[in-house]
Automatic annotation (TrEMBL):
Its main location: mitochondrion. Bifunctional enzyme that converts glutamate to glutamate 5-semialdehyde, an intermediate in the biosynthesis of proline, ornithine and arginine. Pfam families: AA_kinase (PF00696), Aldedh (PF00171). The keyword ATP-binding applies. GO terms for biological process: L-proline biosynthetic process. GO terms for cellular component: mitochondrial matrix. In the N-terminal section; belongs to the glutamate 5-kinase family. HAMAP family: ProA, ProB. Its EC number is 1.2.1.41, 2.7.2.11. It catalyses: L-glutamate 5-semialdehyde + phosphate + NADP(+) = L-glutamyl 5-phosphate + NADPH + H(+); L-glutamate + ATP = L-glutamyl 5-phosphate + ADP. Can form homodimers/multimers. This is Delta-1-pyrroline-5-carboxylate synthase.
Length: 758
């Protein structure tokens, strides 16, 4: 064991019986015994004189929550010096003000000189108060805390080490939270120049090492080190190119440049990393995170234990492939290269992918069969999801046809001029289409989504990150392999990446510096979760598909049952399936109404009655619980309205702005409906199921958007493009256009170049 005053870690950990550290963040939820190390910057206020009470209370709340879950929590804390300094300064100011008042007759507090306070004296004055504060806070959660003060010598004496170990185990057995600190009142003086000049805050190297040493000695599962930085960066935080390291592996020290140390305490990140690596070698998982950020400090500890991507996680298991951050960077670079290709080259890639889907049909279906067998054996998928998971020869043929449509229509998508303006003589402005950047598409159970979305991303020159469900793992792997094979013909293999790491969807939604747009494809619950989790990244999609069909008094008998049957029964799990059927009141108790009900019964559609419809019936079906329900099965709601105006109002109140239909032969009524219903898709005498990118002639879609910004309805290539402005001048400056300048604005519209219609 090396001396702690010089090197803050022990060269070899003691042997441990509890096994290896956790390999992945997702396993941290299984941590039973946890040490939380609070750095000086976390515990103290910004003026370094006194404690950050609000922050400390939040930390105590989180520790108490985990303790009450049955975990064994320990805290290694700093703060005694800062707390003592606050008390001693108060006493000195009070004493000096009395003396000055006696000598000069006036109180000149602003001219008083505060002497440099000796750190050990501050610690002696602050330790009791710090512990009393912890006790008062933990008492609010019916938890008892106990203080343990240690010095370096306590770890050099074998008997003292055994005593310390026994004491800690006994406290944990009694559900008491041990609060451990170095006994700063009796430690040796700090090394020269090791403390902040004029402040004399004692070094916290000992606490970094103390936390690691205790974690190993006590066979803890997890050590959480809270500091005033987000974690470990590949260069000093604040520098232009600094990037947070998500996972740090032993041996990566050479790739890291350590910067300055924290504002209080002198442990520094290098000392924390050494202590963390030593603890990791001893079998304890480690996370270094920010405990001072106001937006995350209130849940940073619980987030880490839940496995969320917070701070830097230390792991001994290095994944075989790239990290998701590296994949994002590869997709960005690959997407830019893809966008720079000629349109014919991008189309050639898509044509190649379409050919591979049919040429490699047997391999694809074999992989899909494995997914289906695993899903059926585990029984984790409902029948509608199993149908979505299943691939067939006809599905693959339809996919190939759709991809060829995309290739044919993508010739002039990127770089197309949509506006030309002559600003002034020899000063021309153009607005041209460009890719959005990097797309993250998250999809459930639908492996056919992968080639569709990939083709649209390729056609629009976007980089792509794909996150598929585990249930389609084998299918997604083979389809992604074929996609990269097609991309390779023009050297842009990296443009489309399949995320296979254990990243949770919520963590992916936080990568705002890597991802420009998130597109969820799946259940309404998935979409809602992603919309909630996305931090600073726009989400394109819809959380619900509550589609209506309104049957007007002038509806054709022949058309009504056909359209309703197709809208509800052709594929009831689809987001564009009918969920609420609105019937004009005058149609009740007519032969047309009876035909509708008979058809739904034959198709085994369960009917739920809306409040008004139920009031007309003596014996009604089960009354609907909510008129805002997406059934996704052979169920629907029937409600009665008095007019087309009331139908529109009902749709606006209970719909999801997805797809709504009117069935009528009255053109005036139909046009009123088409113009007044504010949904992404509004149809007249056509099934709701036409709301689809392939059926619209887009080739395929990345999803259906109910958003009012950028793209709405089925989103094809056009929805994955944005624009930029190109200005071509000749020594033009704004001052030439001033009141006394030599030039005048023209703002003339210029003709657009001829589009490629081949």
């Amino acid at each position: 064991i090396r001396c702690w005053s010089n090197i803050p870690f022990i060269t070899m950990p003691l042997s441990r019986a509890h096994g290896k550290s956790f390999a992945h963040r997702s396993e941290l939820k299984h941590a039973k015994r946890i040490v939380v190390k609070l750095g000086s910057a976390v515990v103290t206020r910004g003026d370094e004189c006194g404690l950050a009470l609000g922050r400390l209370a939040s930390i105590v709340e989180q520790v108490s929550m985990l303790q009450n879950q049955g975990r064994e929590m320990m805290i290694v804390t700093s703060g005694a010096v800062a707390f003592g300094k606050q008390r001693l300064r108060h006493e000195i100011l009070l004493s000096q003000s009395v003396r000055q008042a006696l000598h000069s007759g006036q109180n000149q507090l602003k001219d008083m000189a505060i002497p440099v306070l000796e750190a050990r004296a501050c610690a002696a004055a602050g330790q009791s108060g710090l512990m009393a504060l912890y006790e008062a806070m933990f008492t609010q959660y019916s938890i008892c805390a106990a203080q343990i003060l240690v010095t370096n010598l306590d770890f050099h004496d074998e008997q003292k080490r055994r005593n310390l170990n026994g004491t800690l185990h006994e406290l944990l057995r009694m559900n008491i939270v041990p609060i451990i600190n170095t006994n700063d009142a009796v430690v040796p003086p700090p090394e020269p120049n090791s403390d902040l000049q004029g402040v004399n805050v004692i070094s916290v190297k000992d606490n970094d090492s103390l936390a690691a040493r205790l974690a190993v000695e006590m066979k803890t599962d997890l050590l959480i080190v809270l500091s005033d930085v987000e974690g470990l960066f590949d260069s000093p935080p604040g520098s232009d190119d600094a990037k947070l390291i998500d996972i740090f592996y032993p041996g990566d020290q050479q790739s890291v440049t350590f910067g300055t140390k924290s504002r209080v305490g002198m442990g520094g990140m290098e000392a924390k990393v050494k202590a963390a690596l030593w603890a990791l070698q001893g079998g304890t998982s480690v996370v270094i995170a920010n405990g001072t950020h106001p937006k995350i400090s209130g849940h940073v500890i619980t987030d880490i234990v839940e496995g969320k991507k917070v701070g830097t996680f230390f792991s001994e298991v290095k994944p075989a492939g790239p990290t998701v951050e590296q994949q994002g960077e590869m997709a960005r670079a690959g997407g830019r290269t893809l966008a720079a290709l000629q349109p014919e080259q991008r189309a050639e890639i898509i044509y190649r992918l379409a050919d591979l889907l049919t040429d490699q049909r047997e391999e694809i279906l074999l992989a899909n069969k494995k997914d289906l067998e695993e899903a059926e054996n585990k029984g984790r998928l409902a029948l509608p999801l199993l149908k979505r998971l299943s691939l067939s020869t006809s599905k693959l043929n339809s996919l190939a046809i759709g991809l060829r449509q995309i290739a044919a229509s993508s010739q002039d998508s990127v770089g197309r001029v949509i506006r030309r303006t002559r600003i002034a003589k020899d000063l021309d402005l153009e607005q041209v289409t460009v890719p959005i950047g990097v797309l993250l598409v998250i999809f459930e159970s639908r492996p056919d989504c992968l080639p569709q979305v990939s083709a649209l991303a390729i056609a629009s020159g976007n980089g792509l990150l794909l996150k598929g469900g585990k249930e389609a793992g084998h299918s997604n792997q083979i389809l992604h392999h074929l996609t990269q094979e097609a991309l390779s013909i023009h050297g842009v293999k990296d443009a489309v990446q399949l995320v296979n790491t254990r990243e949770e969807v919520e963590d992916l939604c936080r990568l705002d510096k890597l991802i420009d747009l998130i597109i969820p494809r799946g259940s309404s619950q998935l979409v809602r979760n992603i919309q909630k989790a996305a931090k600073g990244i726009p989400v394109m999609g819809h959380s619900e598909g509550i589609c209506h069909v309104y049957v007007d008094t002038d509806a054709s008998v022949e058309k009504v049952t056909r359209i309703i049957r197709d809208s509800k029964c052709e594929y009831p799990a689809a987001c564009n399936a009918l969920e609420t059927l609105l019937i004009h009141r005058d149609l009740l108790r007519t032969p047309l109404f009876d035909q509708i009900i008979d058809m739904l019964r034959v198709e085994q559609v369960k009917i739920h009655a809306g409040p008004k419809f139920a009031s007309y019936l003596t014996f009604s079906p089960s009354e609907v619980k909510s008129l805002r329900t997406e059934y996704g099965d052979l169920e629907c709601c029937i409600e009665v309205v008095d007019s087309v105006q009331e139908a529109v109002e009902h749709i606006h109140k209970y719909g999801s702005s997805h797809t709504d239909v009117i069935i009528t032969e009255n053109e005036k009524t139909a046009e009123f409906f088409l113009q007044h219903v504010d949904s992404a898709c509004v149809f007249w005498n056509a099934s709701t199921r036409f709301s689809d990118g392939y059926r619209f002639g887009l080739g395929a879609e990345v999803g259906i958007s109910t958003s009012r910004i950028h793209a709405r309805g089925p989103v094809g290539i056009e929805g994955l493009l944005t624009t930029k402005w190109l200005l071509r001048g000749d020594n033009h400056v704004v001052s030439d256009f001033s009141e006394h300048g030599s030039m005048k604005y023209l703002h003339e519209s210029l003709p657009l170049p001829q589009r490629n219609t081949n």
